């Protein structure tokens, strides 16, 4: 009999803002917004004091300043954030064997078979806070889906564990938007069918959902509402075949300039991580999830393996501009694949045309 799955989602509370507050302790307890100064800059993150005014990540900085005019605005320092992130996840990796990084500030961990996993996680959170100053909120469940939903409860410094059945009851009154993977447009379309809460979606007629969304999406929506999820924690035991970084926005972004600004940051994060590991790839790709939940990938293969920030950034921007999303975007990512350390004897492939449309759920 296989061991019961134990999956944790570890999420650093207000990570970028916390790094800034550690460097500027006199700002503790004050509303702080981390954002650029340009007219099209977006909020990188905000302290919880600023969030009380409705400020959220990926929001236009101009809107954030209107919502919280007395906030202290600090320009982002991604070098400092990456340094602190390395410290945090190095400590996590020393204690946990199966960890999947999802960005600078969050990760999933598979603790299946680990004795006293909750105690291990509590001790780890305390050690990270003591040594780095970063507070991690933790959600624990039998799947990534349950763990992700739990980690948001009780923030900051949350620690919540529950099973699938308990999650079905606990989140039943929540709006469907509360489920990862259900964006605002999908939530609106569900509401038009009379499904506004997770409980209503749990009892929804799958045939009716299929008529509106298609069979595959209907099954996916029912699975999300009933917290069925068997997606694995993909560890880096051995060289990963592809490496990516992505962001899901609190508010969908329609501005091309704002999307390009986010894509530049993601490309820089990706390349600096690969440069630190000495890894180079030939296939550069972007991932764009639209407001209606359609997910599109575009890819291009360059002549030689690279981890050059400028080349990856410009290629990713060209792919985004060529695609030109017709809707607002809720998720954006960039990926590098076809690594030379995995295919050392394979000759470079010719430059490929813009990749094909891929629908993902």
Protein architecture, described:
With 361 residues, this protein is α+β, with helices and mostly antiparallel strands. The protein has three domains: 1-169, Reverse transcriptase/Diguanylate cyclase domain (Alpha-Beta Plaits, 2-Layer Sandwich); 172-225, 5' to 3' exonuclease, C-terminal subdomain (DNA polymerase, domain 1, Orthogonal Bundle), CATH 1.10.150; 242-339, DNA polymerase, Y-family, little finger domain (Dna Ligase, domain 1, 2-Layer Sandwich), CATH 3.30.1490. The chain contains 13 helices and twelve strands. It has a five-stranded mixed sheet. Helix 4 (78-95) runs antiparallel to helix 5 (117-132) and helix 12 (256-277) packs antiparallel against helix 13. The protein is globular and about 50 Å long. Mean pLDDT is 87; it is low at 342-361.
**Largest sheet descriptor:** 5 strands, mixed
The helix fraction, in percent, is 25-40%
The quaternary structure here is single chain
| Tally of domains | 3
